[in-house]
Amino acid sequence: MAIHFSLLSSKDIPQIVPLMEVFNEHKFSAEVLQKRFEAMFQQHYECVGVFEEDRLIGVTGLWYQTRHYSGKSCEVDHVYIDEKHRSGGIGKQLFAFIETHVKAKGCEAIELNTYVQNAASHKFYFNLGFKILGFHFLKEI
Questions:
Q1: Would you say the pTM of this structure is higher than 0.85?
Q2: Distance (Å, whole) CA 35 – CA 39
Q3: Where are the alpha helices (DSSP H) in the chain?
Q4: What are the pLDDT digits (tens) for 15-66?
Q5: Which of 44, 75, 80, 125 could form a disulfide linkage to 111, CB 3.0–4.6 angstroms apart?
């Protein structure tokens, strides 16, 4: 299985949306996700695609900002790899790609959020050297 990583663009949104529908457990329609990704690509956002040959099997977002506590940083968002491709080392390869990519852009840190109930992801991120810094709060308005 030949896995490779590539930056996606707004023209790739039709490929991204079906994966994000699964990631979000179909809480949002394809139309809502399409509009949100169109907006995201016009902000400080990049999207990395995970490919097996020519087939998109995973995506993750990268948000860029400068923070007082970490300097120029990248926040990794919505990490998703198709279920049948998990636990084979692709996630570790993806994060190596991300680290190399964001270092080249001058980032000093990588941040991310993960759901409290997702214990498997916690172990994965700890093994990559991430530490818990705080809690992420959300209030829908």
A1: yes
A2: 6
A3: 13-23, 30-40, 90-104, 119-127
A4: 999 999 999 999 999 999 999 999 999 999 999 999 999 999 999 999 999 9
A5: 75
- CATH code for the domain defined by 3-127: 3.40.630.30
Please tell me the number of Cα atoms within 13 Å of 22 on its side-chain side.
Answer: 12
User: Closest Cα partner for 41 from 25, 17, 24?
Assistant: 17
* C-beta pairs of 45-49 under 8 Å, 24+ apart in sequence: 46/7, 47/7, 47/8, 47/9, 47/12, 47/16, 48/5, 48/6, 48/7, 48/8, 48/94, 48/97, 48/98, 48/101, 49/5, 49/6, 49/7, 49/8, 49/12, 49/15, 49/16
